[in-house]
Amino acid sequence: GYPDLLGNKLTDYVSAKASYEKLLVLNPNDDDALLKYSKLLMEHFHDTINSKKHYLKLLEIELQKENNAMMHTQIANTLKSKYRDMDGAKKQYAIALEMNPSDPAIKLEYADFLVEHFNDKTTAGKLYLKAIEMNPVDPRGYKNYAVFLHKSMNNVKSSKENFDKALSLDPNYIIAHYGFANLLAEGFNDNK
Question: Reduced to 3 states, what is the DSSP secondary structure of residue 5?
Fold first, then answer.
């Protein structure tokens, strides 16, 4: 039967789940149903495993339609934030970077991810520098590299230089001001 739309919300979710399951048996590649079913499973049933399974099926379908690096970056972000699948996210970032090695934004995002989740300072440092080299007028590269130098490498002097560069490119860059203020608040010593 149909859900009691005026009744119990849990009953509505259970009925919606059953309806999506029937729909996906009839049409397993219905991308809209896969997306909504995945969301329903995650948000209302806290079923991470099946939510992820259906989300990945949706992504597989979407990637067959349009194979681009940005899609892989979005998949990586979802795997990271929604499903806490860092190995899967790392694989998707690597695919995105391989597909579009000339995109400095992907390099910056992947570098941030590698530092935060894998403590891979060597690869991240190279990615930050390459992104800056590829787009020397983008203050984000300098800001991200400055944060990395400060937090991960304890290189305060170089961090300050990169914050200065980011702010010279965009004096209104709030996130760079915030990072620079943190650097100064923690104590700046030219000898570091």
Answer: coil
Closest CA to 164 of 186, 192, 187, 183: 183
The predicted-structure confidence for 82-105, as pLDDT tens digits, reads as follows: 889 999 999 999 999 998 899 999
Instruction: Region of 132 please: left (phi>0), alpha (psi -120 to 50) or beta.
Output: alpha
Report pTM: 0.70
Which runs of consecutive H residues, i.e. helices, occur in 66-155? Answer: 69-81, 86-99, 104-118, 121-134, 139-151
Q: Which residue has the higher pLDDT, 12 or 185?
A: 185
C-beta of residue 162 within 8 angstroms of C-beta of residue 143? yes
Evaluated on CA atoms 93, 94, 99, 105, the torsion sign reads positive
List of residues 6+ apart from 85 with CB closer than 8 A: 52, 79
With a cut of 80, say whether residue 7 has pLDDT above it: no
22-33 pLDDT tens trace: 999 998 988 888
Task: Report yes or no: 167 and 176 within 8 Å, Cβ to Cβ.
Answer: yes
* Phi (first) and psi of residue 181, to 5 degrees: -60, -40
Tell me which amino acid residue 133 is. E
